[in-house]
Amino acid sequence: MRDLRHPRTPIGFAQAQGAGGLRVELILGQVLHFAADPFAEGPAAALVETRGGVLVDGTRIAAIGPAAALRAAHPAARVTDMGSALLSAGFVDAHAHYPQTGIIASWGKRLIDWLNSYTFPEEMRFGDPAHAAAVAARYLDLVLAHGTTTVASFCTSHPESVDALFAAAEARGMRIAAGKTCMDRNAPPGLCDTAERAHDESAALIARWHGRGRLVYAITPRFAPTSTPEQLDALGTLWADHPTCLMQTHLSEQTEELDWVRALYPEARDYLDVYERAGLLGPGALFGHCIHLTGRERMRLREAGAALIHCPTSNAFIGSGLFDMAGLIAEGQRVGLATDTGGGSSFSMLRTMAAAYEIGQLRGRALHPAELWWLATAGGARAMGMAERIGNLAPGMEADLIALDLASTPAIAQRSARAGTFWEAVFPTIMMGDDRAIAGVWVNGQRQRPAEAPRG
C-alpha cells in the first residue's frame, strides 16, 4: 500500500491554478487518515500527522503529509491554516430520509405507529415541487453544517422529491445517492404507486440523474410490508437493467415488523429471502438496521457482498433493539453508519458515533474511537461502493473534507486538555460534540461558507 504520509512530487507553478482553473489550496491542521480498516488491523490503521496538511488541487486531493514539507514543495498554493483542528474526510451518512427533516424528534411510539402518525402525513406534502425543494435545501445545509458531505437518502414516492434533492446536491457539488421510495400497499393512497409506475418512474429518474456529476441513483423499495411481490419483482428487474445503481431498503428493524413480513410473505424462508427472491440482494444493496437477523440471513448478506447500515440513534429512539456490531464485523460483514433522520434523533454523525459506542457497550464490546471514526467515513464509503472516491484522505481522492475543533465547548475543552494520547483528545468530541465542533467543510474542493451551510 502506498505510504500516504509523504507528499507526492511537487507540482509546478503553471499547475498552481489547479484543475479546471481552480486554485490549489493547502489546508493545515492535524491530519487523520486510514491505511487500513481498524476493525481488521487495530487502531494503528489510523495515521495521524500532528502538524500536517492536505493539498487540494481543484476537486481532488493531490497530497497529504507534514505541513512544512508540503509548504516547501508547493509555494504557490493558497494556505488555509486551521491551527490544531483535526482534518478528516467528510462524514458519510449511509441511510437517511430527507423528507422527515421537519418531523425529527417527534414523540415516541413504535415503528409502524410512528410511520402512520408522523412519516406518511409529512411525506404527502412532497408532491409540491416548491415544498420539496425547500426541504431538500434545508436538509443538505443542515448535514453540511454537521460535517456530513455524502448521504444516501430515501425520498418520497413523488418523483418531484427526487428531482429536488438531486438538484440541491448538484448545486452544492455533493456526492449523494437517493431514489424514489416505492410503495403499492399498506400506505396512504396518496403515497402509493403501482408496480408499473414504480418501475417506470424510477427508470425515468435514473435516466435523468444517475451518473450525472457526483449523483448516484438508489433503487428504493421502502420495505417489504409496503410493496407487493409484483412491485419488488419489478424493482429487481430494474436493478438488473441498471446494475451500477445502488439499492436501498430496510431489513429486520423491529420484531413486530418481522411478524408482519411473515404474514405477508408466508412462502419466504425469512425477511431477507423476500428481497432475494425479487433480485434485490447483491453488491450495492444497502440494508438499513439489520438488528434481528437469522443465521441464514447473516450468511447470505456476507456472501452477496451487501452492506448493513447501523442506525444507532434511531434504534434507541424507536426502541428497535441493539445492533450486533462485534458479531457482524467478526463474520466479515460490510457495515456503514447512519443517522436515519428523522427516525434518528440527530443530523450529527458525531452524535451517531456516540450512540454506536453506547450500544456497543450494552452489547459488551466498546468500540475504539478509531473504529467509530472509520465507520463514519471510510466504512460508510465502502458500504456505498464509493471507497475509491470518498471517505478517506489520500492522493487522488475527491476533496470532501472537514476540520474539527477538538475544544469546541467548555466541557469538551477541559476534558481534551487532560488527554495523554491523540484518541483520548478526540473521544470527548465524539461523545459530546455537535455542529459547533465543525470548523470547516470542503465539498469537492470548495469550502462551504456559513451562508451555504447554516448551523441548526
Automatic annotation (TrEMBL):
Q: Which source organism?
A: Rhodovulum steppense
Pathway-wise, it operates in: Purine metabolism; guanine degradation; xanthine from guanine: step 1/1
Q: Which segments constitute the Aminodeoxyfutalosine deaminase/Imidazolonepropionase-like composite domain?
A: 52-77
Recorded catalytic reaction(s): these are: guanine + H2O + H(+) = xanthine + NH4(+)
The name this protein carries in UniProt is Guanine deaminase
Q: Which Pfam families match?
A: Amidohydro_1, HUTI_composite_bact
NCBIfam families per the UniProt record, alphabetical: guan_deamin, PRK09228.1
Q: What does this protein do?
A: Catalyzes the hydrolytic deamination of guanine, producing xanthine and ammonia.
What keywords appear on the UniProt entry?
Hydrolase, Metal-binding, Zinc
Instruction: Give the UniProt entry's GO cellular component terms.
Output: cytosol
Q: How is the cofactor bound?
A: Binds 1 zinc ion per subunit.
Query: What family does the database annotate?
Result: Belongs to the metallo-dependent hydrolases superfamily. ATZ/TRZ family.
Question: Which GO molecular function annotation, any one, does this entry have?
Answer: guanine deaminase activity
| Uppermost EC category | hydrolase
Give every Amidohydrolase-related domain span: 87-446
The protein's required cofactor(s) are namely: Zn(2+)
Q: What is the lineage of its organism?
A: Bacteria, Pseudomonadati, Pseudomonadota, Alphaproteobacteria, Rhodobacterales
Could you tell me the Gene Ontology terms of the biological process aspect for this record?
guanine catabolic process
